[in-house]
Write a structure and sequence with these properties.
17 helices; 4-stranded parallel β-sheet; about 35% helix; FAD/NAD(P)-binding domain; alpha/beta; homodimer; disordered N terminus; about 25% strand; globular; 28 strands
Chain lengths: ~550, ~550
Amino acid sequence: MQATSPRMQLGQLPSGLLDALASRSLPSRAIASRLSHGRPTQRRDITVNQLDKSSDHRERVVILGSGWAGYTVARQLNPKKYQAVVVSPRSYFAFTPLLASTSVGTLEFRTALEPVRSRRSNVNYFQGWADVVDFKNKKVTIEESADDPSQGLALSRGNWDEIKSDVKKVALAKKGKTFDLTWDKLIITVGCYSQTFGTPGVKEHALFLKDVGDARKIRNRILLCFETAALPTTTDAMRKNLLNFAIVGGGPTGIEFSAELHDIIKEDLARIYPELMEFYKITVYDVADKVLPMFDEDLGKYAMKTFAREGIKIKTSHHVESLRKGPPGDDNAAKDIQDEYPCWTLRVKEEGDIGVGMVVWSTGLMMNPFAEKALGKIPSTPESGVKYISPGSKMSRSSLQWAVHKEPRTGSVITDDRLHVLLESDDEHGSKQRAIMEDVFALGDCAKIEDTTCPATAQVASQKAEWLAKRLNKGDFDKGGFTWKNMGVMAYIGNWNAIMQGGGGGSVSGRAAWVLWRGAYLTKSVSWRNKVLIPIYWFLNWAFGRDISRF
Amino acid sequence: MQATSPRMQLGQLPSGLLDALASRSLPSRAIASRLSHGRPTQRRDITVNQLDKSSDHRERVVILGSGWAGYTVARQLNPKKYQAVVVSPRSYFAFTPLLASTSVGTLEFRTALEPVRSRRSNVNYFQGWADVVDFKNKKVTIEESADDPSQGLALSRGNWDEIKSDVKKVALAKKGKTFDLTWDKLIITVGCYSQTFGTPGVKEHALFLKDVGDARKIRNRILLCFETAALPTTTDAMRKNLLNFAIVGGGPTGIEFSAELHDIIKEDLARIYPELMEFYKITVYDVADKVLPMFDEDLGKYAMKTFAREGIKIKTSHHVESLRKGPPGDDNAAKDIQDEYPCWTLRVKEEGDIGVGMVVWSTGLMMNPFAEKALGKIPSTPESGVKYISPGSKMSRSSLQWAVHKEPRTGSVITDDRLHVLLESDDEHGSKQRAIMEDVFALGDCAKIEDTTCPATAQVASQKAEWLAKRLNKGDFDKGGFTWKNMGVMAYIGNWNAIMQGGGGGSVSGRAAWVLWRGAYLTKSVSWRNKVLIPIYWFLNWAFGRDISRF
């Protein structure tokens, strides 16, 4: 994953500290308040009416999503000025850069999580999916999803057509319980789905690494593969299949996961299943001719050298065609025994059928169906909060058919450099009309500033979120637009090595970069609870080994 | 749960320390070996042939089960003298006294787990269910179950008939892959199932607290109930149902869980969902006229007073008749809306239908089907290792129809005071013949010493296991039989209070007992990793509150 460089981290630490002090989250303060039994209880709201009552003339900011953009902006809005309401199917924020570590047990899962509801924030929260957005009446309809089985898992669809048919199905399907929520300002941070390019079998059989539920599946799967391979009933051929781990996608996520996988095998499983070491294999596939494209050539070379030494195969210019259950060989035969042989067959154009114990899929993002479903044509624009750019009479404007401006290729929501959502329309003369929704913002992976090319990363999302929260708190949008400070990228490459490239172009690699990598994420981690737990787990797993209990 | 008193714990600590020293598990040793890259790799065996090869004339001890009895005896057998092989569907040992704490997040789940496979033990392990036991040829047939979905969950059946039909079904069903394992000594520690007395709906809808998977289900369920109750689409009536928590069974497990549940609500959820506090309710039901029967009257009274103060209702002499999905009221109506209303209806003879958000069922144990299935009649006894007690010619003896001696009422396997499994038979004159299987032992919840009444507790199981490991290591069974040292019982009763009753009859209650309670379990916990993590989590959750992320 991409991350901000330590420079910025250290710059941020003080504010983080003040933050924590202000919120009584430092041990000393907590202890004091414990002893005095003096911890005030925060009022939170359970019904929309109560929200209205308790808003006392503050503007309500409804935030759709609880990822890097949504969680950050919600926590940084000034509660005296705004009533922040987060609506998300996921009740926690996942610190994505640490997911790869949790997926092999280098860290415990919860060290990468922060609940949206917290004693230490003033954020209101409803668990649900935003469904219909009524821009005219500034109202969003929410379908509650407290018991959503997909919570914690990456969402993926085969392809665009499937998403469109999904959207239709959802539209037709009997709704779960829904409720309406009005906003003064709306912030759209719904994120993206995992991209599978419609590759057959991938969304059914591959594992992703986008949320903590995915990480747990992967951890259990790795240990299950070794446990099954250790059974006397398992043939050597099947052992080769079960312990053949394929990672598809050579971006930071795929690379960091393969490095962490190598670490747990070399440092822990090698001692517990020494007799299985001859069977395991880690391979990273990518269609491009190089992995880690965002790094300079020499850093890329360094990573490749490290991987070669660690025995991780990197296969560029390879095309994955399908993934199916059962071992390679005659499909029918495979169907019969697929249940007793828990392995899969990956078909690679350049290599044919390969038996694998696990495929971790990390080939990037695709548009969230929400954008397709709720952010299309706008029946009528609101009276206020819309700034019409191009000339034309007010009459004609409201009579025009407006639609949210989206990038045709990706479906990303296009915003101006203030992160306002843009509308467009063809007027009666067929010429483009444009408008700015001044109370509706979009950021994170689902959005894009017009004519810019920021990558869809946590770094950009959190910078936008911090910028937007500041502007809203100060009310100084006139001061100028958002500009991305490239803080550089870093990636863990295994065996206590990392590569790091500063925004300025400077680069570090090896053990030093690894220290900076850990330092950066430790500093960036949100709660003091996790700032304490993370180094403790780093130490314990180094001293005693990772926990291999599987449940 | 019942636990051993601190006296014994402290007595044990030194041996635990030496243990750890010997096994290089102390940080200093681990660090040293890390730095010198000098950690020896232990040889483990993946096939039965390899086991045979690597046994080098040691006796093979096959241990069925990885609970208190099996895990303890496996770790304490002298590896120079015996080749220990654990066969269990569960790849880890669960430290059951801490499960209640993990079920509300006072401790993280893994702090209550120890993997059977460990760098620091010489134990071989196969994941599977013991299936057929061939006493004559000293051979057990194992059905592999690495991918068993029930791993981590309490096992329960409606009643005896259902178990018997299960056994028939299993016998008829197409087997998974199986393999044979021969033993020189067999130790049966398969434990018990959860008792439901055939109460309709319980095994489908109730949650148990016997394994870490149960604890995780409970933790998610509690948080889901509050999150759902916080939705504007939830009526107040449904909030009452969702936040009505019923515990069935007033033994230590049920009582400790209700206390932990009270703690997380009062200490954490009250701050996060203050507006829901008017709705929640905790009730413990028991058919008996008192709870915690194993404690003296004054300790029981103290516990009741504490619970009354904490607002936990104790309803003795109450009879639970059924549990079904959906809210109370007309059954058909309930069926229609049961999906959108995730609550249950508990029918209590004395109270009628009650809407509940969660039922935790803890009414004791019932026999493991394995005893019914594999430990019945014995086609023919082995040549050696059987000691015939009552008179009669050897001829007639081997021609007799022998069966494992079991308690008719409970189905427990009966052993002598050396923990040897007993056989019985009717000879031609209709008089009882008895025999001792000198190489087959049974202990833990599935076994019982003839004419004794030790409770089925972790304390008894681990004392038997330690005794048996010592005898086997020293070979001095002639030195006398096992006698249980009652180390007393203790129970956490919430709000930093506990009750404790020494084996001698002395008793402690309140904060002091709570300190001893924590001290005892911290001392008793197995690995140094957990000895470090447990107090850290105790502190962090006290200072920052329990983590409420749900995934």
